[in-house]
């Protein structure tokens, strides 16, 4: 079984300042790992033109369009954290984590469940929902 998130897919201090730069920076990690072709990064940028992938809690999860599924060679996730927020229009995420999965559905359900730790504020502050009331479901 192939791991979808490995150390080489994580950058603790990204350099991007704009949304497009951040998507390209995080997407380049997926391309470099052999998970996707460059066409998938372009599809992530296309999706962002129609709908924001900002998820809240200082996190954006760019992903390609359904038409770009053929550009995914194997499932993978990258993560880039930014000291200063990236300008996503009305939102300012501090972490970008593109998801590329060959599964038709379900790849974003884990990201949107708000049950995982907050990665946007760094590993020293990532805590379980038990310790973060704003992540608990009512």
Total DSSP helices: 3
Q: Which structural category fits the helices and strands?
A: alpha/beta
Biggest sheet strand line-up? 1-5-6-3-2
**Major pleated sheet:** 5 strands, mixed
Q: Provide the succession of SSEs.
A: EHHEEEEEEH
As an assembly, this protein is single chain
Number of strands: 7
State the low-pLDDT regions, or none: 106-138
Shape, principal axes of CA atoms: globular
List the helices and strands and how they pair.
Layout: E1 10-11, H1 19-32, H2 38-50, E2 54-56, E3 59-60, E4 76-77, E5 79-81, E6 95-96, E7 99-100, H3 109-112
Parallel strand pairs: 1-5, 3-6
Antiparallel strand pairs: 2-3, 4-7, 5-6
Helix pairs in contact: 1-2
Describe this structure in words.
The chain has 138 residues and is α/β, with parallel strands linked by helices. Helices cover 22% and strands 12% of the residues. The protein is built from 3 helices and 7 strands, in the order βααββββββα. A hairpin with a 2-residue loop joins strand 2 and strand 3 (59-60). The relative contact order is 0.19.
Brief overview, please?
The chain is an alpha/beta fold and 138 residues long. Helices cover 22% and strands 12% of the residues.
Primary descriptors:
single chain; 138 residues; alpha/beta; 5-stranded mixed β-sheet; two-stranded antiparallel sheet; 12% strand; disordered C terminus
């Amino acid at each position: 079984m192939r791991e979808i998130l490995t150390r080489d897919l994580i950058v603790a201090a990204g350099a991007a300042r704009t949304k497009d730069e951040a998507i390209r920076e995080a997407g380049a990690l997926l391309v470099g790992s052999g998970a996707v072709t460059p066409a998938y990064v372009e599809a992530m940028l296309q999706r962002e033109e129609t709908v924001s992938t900002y998820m809240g809690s200082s996190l954006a999860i760019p992903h390609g369009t359904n038409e770009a599924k053929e550009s995914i060679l194997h499932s993978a996730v990258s993560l880039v954290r930014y000291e200063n927020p990236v300008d996503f229009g009305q939102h300012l995420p501090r972490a970008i984590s593109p998801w590329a999965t060959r599964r038709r559905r379900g790849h974003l359900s884990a990201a949107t469940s708000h049950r995982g730790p907050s990665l946007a504020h760094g590993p020293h502050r990532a805590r379980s929902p038990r310790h973060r009331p704003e992540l608990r479901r009512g």
